[in-house]
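Sequence only, no structure available. Ideas?
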Amino acid sequence: MSLPQVYCLMGPTAAGKTDKAIQMAQEQNCDLISVDSALVYRGMNIGTAKPDAQTLKAAPHALIDIIEPYQSYSAADFCRDAVQAIEQSLAKGRTPLLVGGTMMYFRALQQGLSPLPQACPKTRALLEMQLAEQGLAHLYKELQSIDPLAASKIKPNDKQRIQRALEVFRLSNIPLSTLQLQQAEPLPYEFVNYAIIPDDRAELHARIAERFHLMLTAGFIDEVCGLRARGDLNLNLPSMRAVGYRQVWQYLDGEFDKATMIDKGIAATRQLAKRQLTWLRRWPKLVHLSR
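Reply:
I predicted one. Tokens follow.
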């Protein structure tokens, strides 16, 4: 018995994935499911290049606008929500089409997640207290002693990943690197992987720059002003680490001028595209599509 097919459309930022996905959905009876770690947040519309209301009405996407920016959303959360959306689509006799550029989400869904313990507020609070008292270098040294393999893959200034690795060990008494070798059972789907990979890197960079300027014209700075004014957000949150948002926030804090903000925002987006392309070069069995 053949497995139900699930389409996946990947590609770097600004490659034209949304337009292609809408075309495929209309032609092939597909339901769209977003695979984007920034589009999950409400109120973050311009800087994430979120499809506008009219587009979403004509071509609904699951997993857009599902949490607030102060909340966290992990790959495990995505897998849970994506499987639910996939099953709903299959139950209607349609084909799920997952579209986006968060490659870690695609990998987690297709290859399975390691059985890591859930976040523990009490343990995290203790780690924050230890961080405040002893500093990040001390936490990193502790990680090196209990899990040198994980520490070798984490930068000494990556507070979030250092704390998570320590949290995992304290909750399970097993090093993170050991748990990561244990994969979950594969999902009962046949994943068909499509990708839009621009041949001309200079053209992609030009599209990235053009889109960033269009975001600014559309009110991106005002959007970030509104997010800052909420009072429940800061630059340490995953939502505010999204490309563009951090740079505009820092500009509003007076860390640099507008021209520098624009340069930094475009450069960060180009780095994101580079990482996405690196993932795609290693992805097996891709069907290449044109825009």
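Residues 258-281 form the longest helix (24 residues).
Hope that gets you unstuck.
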